[in-house]
Amino acid sequence: MASGRAPRDSAPPNPERPSAAWVFARPERIIAFGFGSGLIHPAPGTWGTLTGWLLWALFLRGLPDAWMVAVLIVSFGLGCWVAQRCGDALGIPDHGGINWDEIVAIWLVLWLMPEGFWSQLAGVILFRIFDILKPPPVSVLDRRFKSGFGVMIDDIVAALYALLAAAILIRLGVLP
Question: Residue 15: CB partners within 8 Å, gap ≥ 6?
Fold first, then answer.
């Protein structure tokens, strides 16, 4: 406990597929697993992204820019902590069900994309492509940092790739 890590005895019987009861037993697990969306298989990262899009539409879309920056910074820091706690408890630093990183990253993309359903959908698709393909340095970050920070930062870089691709598509007139 001196390291500040969660005790291993809190791991579920099957760390590869934690149960809903295990996830919903602690607040940090609920957040890390995207309010349960990380339990959905296949593609828990995609479900986390869609959860993030829903949360964006319901609660964040109208926030002033300064508030959105604050939300992103606080959510990133919170994500580092909850991902570290869950990774320690599961014994798997970057468990696939931990998808708060996708939620925060898609908020960054949606904040900077043009308004409108089709632009936002393009942002979601571009983010998923870069998150799945993990072009360098996303892949390097994913391999090198096996911590809560590592879980969060590679998705933020994938979001930046998605925004760059979207800017190019907008400049070319492909996206409105």
Answer: 90, 91, 92, 95
The predicted structure's pLDDT at residue 2: 42
CA gap 165, 74 in Å, rounded: 26
Using CA atoms, how far apart are residues 153 and 155, in angstroms rounded to an integer? 5
The per-residue pLDDT for 142 is 76
Q: Other C-beta atoms within 10 Å of 63: how many?
A: 15
Kindly report, residue by residue over 123-176, the tens digit of the pLDDT.
999 999 999 999 998 888 878 888 999 999 999 999 999 999 999 999 999 988
Amino acid at 89: A
Query: What is the pTM (predicted TM-score) of this model?
Result: 0.91
Give the pair of three-digit tokens for residue 21: 């009861």
How far is Cα 139 from Cα 85, in angstroms, rounded to an integer?
22
In whole angstroms, how far apart are CA 24 and each of 9, 34, 49, 57, 140?
17, 11, 20, 24, 32
Q: Which tokens go with 30?
A: 């609920």
Q: Whole-angstrom Cα distance, residue 114 to residue 52?
A: 17
What values do phi and psi take at 58, rounded to 5?
Answer: -80, -35
